[in-house]
Amino acid sequence: MAKQVTAEKRQRRERGSINPDDIIKGAFELAESVGIDNLSMPLLGKHLGVGVTSIYWYFRKKDDLLNAMTDRALRQYVFATPYVEAKDWRETLGNHARIMRKTFLGNPILCDLILIRSALSPRAAKVGVAAVEKAIGDLVQAGLSPEDAFNTYSAMSVHVRGSVVLRRLSDKNRSAEDAPGDFAEVMVIDPETTPLLAQVTDEAHRIGVSDDNNFDYGLACILDHAERLIDEKSAPAPRRKTTTPRRKAGTR
Fold it and tell me: From the UniProt annotation, which stretches of this protein bind DNA (predicted)?
């Protein structure tokens, strides 16, 4: 039988002594121990030492509270992520991607709110759009067309988010009883029938797994493609051959 999620009960507050910031802060504290999926208004009330009606006064339902948590988490995440710089676009975009991934992997609550839940309030979405606009603008300054800059940043973002979500879902599955292993763990590799797979996996490579090696390889492919586009755009156009018109017979 699954263990029932409980919250540590605090000394009860006086009526009217709590505000939205206290509730959001307490929700993050509680989510650290029970997770976003198990976060509930009654549990949060016990954690904060208030009646659940005090929470409903500010947040009418759980989704409203999660939206407010997402607003705060997204603002903190955007400010903590380094921006892309046109003069050194490849290194800064690569660092942007790696730190974005590291931030999400290091904070499961952030991952669940922004990536898995994927329900941003208009205010949170506006903050995110401003950051993306700046990154794309810097890539355009670096030499990409607006369309190629958009596609490059979008591909990088999908690569990061996909890598993080796969890792997060794998971690969640591992925490369940009788959970199967991931794709690489359940593969049966026979050196006789799959010699190439046997050779590569012996070198610590894993197929279909959201690890650092697979992430870095995919990121390098995206950056390499963007670099080729910039080189092609900046290459001088081939000179057109000029031909001397032929004289008509009998003319000098």
Answer: 40-59
| Whether residue 133 sits in one domain with residue 219 | yes
Q: Are residues 47 and 87 in the same domain?
A: no
Q: pTM value?
A: 0.74
Q: State pLDDT tens for residues 199-245.
A: 777 666 677 788 999 999 999 999 999 999 999 988 776 676 666 66
Determine, yes or no, domain membership for 69.
no
One-letter identity of residue 20: P
Per-residue model confidence as pLDDT tens digits over 146-190: 999 999 999 999 999 999 999 998 888 776 665 555 555 556 677
Give the integer Cα–Cα distance in Å for 67 and 232: 44
Number of domains in the chain: 2
Q: How far is residue 49 CA from its own chain's centroid?
A: 34
- Cβ contacts of 144 within 8 Å, gap of 6 or more: 152, 226, 229, 230, 233
> Could you tell me if 105 and 217 lie in one domain?
yes
DSSP state letter for 87: G
The verdict on residue 91 lying in a domain is yes
Does some domain include residue 115? yes
Regarding whether 95 and 35 lie in a shared domain, the answer is no
CA pair distance 208, 172, nearest whole angstrom = 17
Q: How far apart are the first and last CA of the chain?
A: 106
Do 44 and 13 form a contact (C-beta atoms < 8 A)? no
Which of 19, 22, 133, 126 has its CA nearest to residue 74?
126
Please report, for the domain that includes residue 172, its CATH number: 1.10.357.10
